[in-house]
Design goal:
By secondary structure, the chain is of the alpha+beta class. It has 2 helices and 23 strands. The strands form 5 sheets. Strands 10, 11, 16, 17, 19, 20 and 22 form a 7-stranded antiparallel beta sheet that branches. Strands 2, 4, 5, 7, 8 and 9 form a 6-stranded mixed beta sheet that branches. Strand 13 and strand 14 form a beta hairpin. Helix 1 runs antiparallel to helix 2. The longest helix is centred in the N-terminal third of the chain and has 33 residues. It is elongated.
Length: 401
């Protein structure tokens, strides 16, 4: 219980004791003499003093009881009248949170660039899977970048390492200086094997000190030439000739050399391919077997295909539709059909100029004058000075009987 309340209760009790001691005497006292009054006054005084002493003693005792216990070993003694108890909270240090250190990535170590290192850029000629007939000659050219830190001198070589050499020279001089970061075209003349199938030859570079190097992170990978040797199609000389369907039976040439149909668009060396869905100028879509031809570049550039001889009958007609390919705005060419009879001199059967002007040419030639003769036909396109955009189409070229 609070000390304030104890003090109040004790005070009430003391007051009751004092009153109890005095009041009976007041009301019970008889009429007395002066001596008796004096005696009574003395007794009351003594009693009052005793009571006061008792009260003081009791107050002191109560004060001692309710005083807070003084802490030991205190430099300054507490005042005896201080009764307030102050509960000062003890400061508790915060528990540290274990925060993991931020990981610091290791400083990467620079990988030194090798001295001799090559990087393949592109196949300039003869992309993988090109078709050739047995014995066809062709030139394979790669574009290779000097990816290392050392200069390639003219004493470096292109060397055959393994696979099928395709009758190529095993060592070809580079004959050029190639600085780091520069690219160079390296070439080798090859001949298609005599039997049909797929063939691959692997090649690398050799430094002047004899170190052989190539592609890949370890500079040990070769680049290659891969071709398919196909069988020439034999045609029946007594049947009407379909030039598109029999294109593999023809011998194709340009001013750059022999050409084998391989599905590529080659505006430098010339190319030939067959398609059943060509698109010609004015965005016209065709759906008949056709030939797409590109002449070789440069002055006098051509593409030509000579077909085996066929026997012409009376009433035969040679028909075709001639046009520039779609989206070839600078197309400007000369179409020609030539022929030779019984292995004689070549003559012109007809010539037609075509440009990208939204028109095309229908050809229908009566061959009755050649009836009974064995005739070789040649389809030819010349570039009129440049092969830029000279992708042209022979739509459904054939002999109708």
């Amino acid at each position: 219980m609070n000390a304030k309340y104890w003090f109040f209760i004790v005070s009430i009790i003391l007051m009751g004791l004092i009153l109890g001691a005095c009041i009976p005497n007041i009301f019970a006292a008889p009429v007395t003499s002066d001596f008796d009054l004096a005696s009574t006054a003395i007794a009351q005084t003594v009693t009052a003093r005793q009571t006061e002493a008792f009260i003081q003693t009791l107050q002191a005792e109560l004060t001692r009881v309710v005083q807070p216990t003084q802490p030991a070993n205190t430099a300054t003694p507490q005042s005896p009248t201080a009764t307030a108890i102050v509960n000062t909270p003890t400061a508790v240090p915060p528990t540290p949170t274990n925060v993991p250190p931020t990981p610091v990535p290791p400083t990467p170590t620079a990988t030194p660039i090798p001295c001799y290192w090559a990087k393949f850029v592109s196949d300039v000629t003869v992309p993988d899977g090109s078709d050739y007939y047995p014995g066809d000659k062709f030139t394979k050219t790669w574009r290779i970048k000097n990816y290392g830190t050392c200069t390639w001198s003219s004493d470096f070589d292109l060397v055959f390492t393994n696979g099928n050499a395709m009758n190529g020279t095993a060592v070809v001089d580079l004959n050029k200086t190639v600085y780091p970061g520069e690219s160079v075209d390296v070439s080798v003349d090859l001949v298609a094997p005599s039997t049909t199938g797929s063939y691959t030859g692997y090649w690398m570079l050799r430094a002047s000190n004899g170190v052989i190097f190539g592609l890949g992170p370890n500079q040990d990978k070769a680049f290659w030439a891969q071709i398919d040797v196909i069988k020439k199609i034999e045609i029946d000389p007594n049947s009407p000739l379909d030039f598109a369907a029999s294109y593999n039976a023809a011998t194709w040439r340009s001013t750059k050399g022999s050409i084998t149909p391989n599905g590529d668009y080659d505006y430098t060396n010339g190319s030939i391919l067959e398609t059943s869905s060509p698109k010609i100028e004015k965005d016209r879509q065709e759906d008949e077997p056709s030939l797409v031809m590109i002449p070789s570049d440069g002055t006098g550039g051509i593409i030509s295909g000579e077909y085996p001889a066929v026997n012409i009958k009376d009433g035969d007609h040679l028909t075709a539709l001639l046009a520039c390919g779609n989206d070839q705005p600078k197309c400007d060419v000369m179409f020609q059909i030539n022929y030779s009879v019984n292995g004689g001199a070549t003559k012109n059967l007809g010539s037609w100029t075509e440009a990208y002007e939204g028109n095309w040419t229908h050809v229908d030639i009566d061959l009755s004058d050649l009836a009974g003769k064995s005739v070789k036909f040649t389809l030819l396109v010349s570039n009129n000075g440049s092969s830029k955009d000279d992708r042209v189409v022979w739509v459904a070229p054939k002999i109708i009987r």
